[in-house]
Write a structure and sequence with these properties.
The structure holds 2 protein chains of 2 kinds. Chain A has no helices and 11 strands. By secondary structure, chain A is an all-beta fold. In chain A, strands 2, 4, 5, 6, 9, 10 and 11 form a 7-stranded mixed beta sheet that branches. Chain A has a 4-stranded antiparallel beta sheet with strand order 1-3-8-7, with no helix packed on it. Chain A is globular and about 40 Å long. The termini of chain A are far apart. Classes of the chains: A mainly beta, B mainly beta. At the A-B interface, strand 4, strand 5, strand 9 and strand 10 of A face strand 3 and strand 4 of B.
Amino acid sequence: GAVVSQHPSRVICKSGTSVKIECRSLDFQATTMFWYRQFPKQSLMLMATSNEGSKATYEQGVEKDKFLINHASLTLSTLTVTSAHPEDSSFYICSAAPGTSGGRGGVDTQYFGPGTRLTVL
Amino acid sequence: DAKTTQPPSMDCAEGRAANLPCNHSTISGNEYVYWYRQIHSQGPQYIIHGLKNNETNEMASLIITEDRKSSTLILPHATLRDTAVYYCIVRVANTGGFKTIFGAGTRLFVKA
């Protein structure tokens, strides 16, 4: 249980275009989802907290107009990278917690998606 | 959330126990210790967590010192597939609004 999926797993786009990444909790509902970014040989950096039905909360230094987050349902959050540039190329990872529905690690453990590798040419 | 300190890298022989230490000297009474690992180009995988008692599951054991200022993740019989970056994280466990902040982690190399 507690499986999180992401789509697409890999995307290559041209500079200036927008890219949407989906994050789904497959077997549980998640009021809160999180988005991370990871550059090569670095740790995960939290970008924003996505709350179902409300605006996302962004970490300091993350441009909310560039990284649009929508959490329209309890099982789906999307991250849109607008007007992508080569410096946005990174590994984007989402996570979610089962809340009351549990999971191997319990109600408060976050489970992570497999990640989406974005390459902007 | 409290900060953690981990060695940047460790080696372990295949079949032997891998003991990964973590210092969290500023941990608060309501903060849990979580361990995740990340295999290259994948999302982090939950391993185990605990508050103050030692914990064991099918993947690993977690030993937390009595003063809770440090802990050790034990992989009892390491395999080559256990080569990964291991992250020790301390945070409050409550529903909604919590964050998981990653440090640099320990890069474990399991060698044949």
